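Ticket #4471: structure export looks truncated?
Reporter: QA, pipeline team
Priority: medium

Steps to reproduce: submit the single chain below to the structure queue and open the exported record.
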Amino acid sequence: MSETLPILEGKQDNFSMLVIENSYKGPVCVYYWAEKAAPCHKFFPVLTQLVKDFQGRFLLVTVNTDAQSALCHQQKITSVPTLHLFYQGQKVKQWHGPQSAGDLHAILAEYLTRKSDQTIIDALNAYKAGDVEQALSMLAKAALDDPENLRIPVTLSKLLMAQGRHTEALNLLEALPDDIKKQKDVLILLAHQRFIQIAKNAPDKSYLAEKSQHTELTAEEHYQYAALCLLDDEYDLALKALFTILKANKSEDIQQGMLAIFDILGEDHALVLKYRPALFNILY
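Actual output as written to the record:
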């Protein structure tokens, strides 16, 4: 690989550093290839040209699947060429087979640092200094000036949530493109907002608890009860209610609701260790 381009070789012992750690600095594209696969050799020049076009603003990591079978098994690679895009510690995109330069260019551009990112930093500093309205105003203007930088509305929605302006935050998130709404941090924000909206229109929690002792609650009532329990930090009851719905209906909203609670509690929490395997078994 060229020494003058940000193209590095990924291996089992350096994958975390090259890919995960670097993805917090900018997008990292991982290219899984094999020596005997002709499409891989035809596709690599396309990736090399992208690296040149973007002038090193993203990192390309190549993984030889023949030499790194254990790593490829961990990453669930079943065919080559395969591309994975990592950003902020998460795998945000994946492709199987050769892709056009235009499609890759458009997707990479979503994750590259833009001039308007400095406005996000300035707005967050203003918010931390107590100038809330100034911070919100800066982000609102920046969103109009650079509508392609979707990090701006996501940041703005987080600040609106912190201020209790949940309807505005939800409207911002719902207006995002579908592929952005599928990103983990946005999915969690949306799930939190939906819980808040459900709780606002729910009957009294004690009424639902009492009713459940005498008759089976509907899916909507279980969802309402989960939302009310979540607001009271009763995570066990909230997860139990959501899991009850999920057993009858594999709703994506319910799945994301459970994942949002997992995110609050952390991966090592006893409830997460209890319900994550159960969620997996229901879905798969």
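Status: closed, not a bug. The export was complete when the record was re-opened. Leaving a note from the reviewer for reference: Residues 117-173 form a domain with the Serine Threonine Protein Phosphatase 5, Tetratricopeptide repeat fold (CATH 1.25.40).
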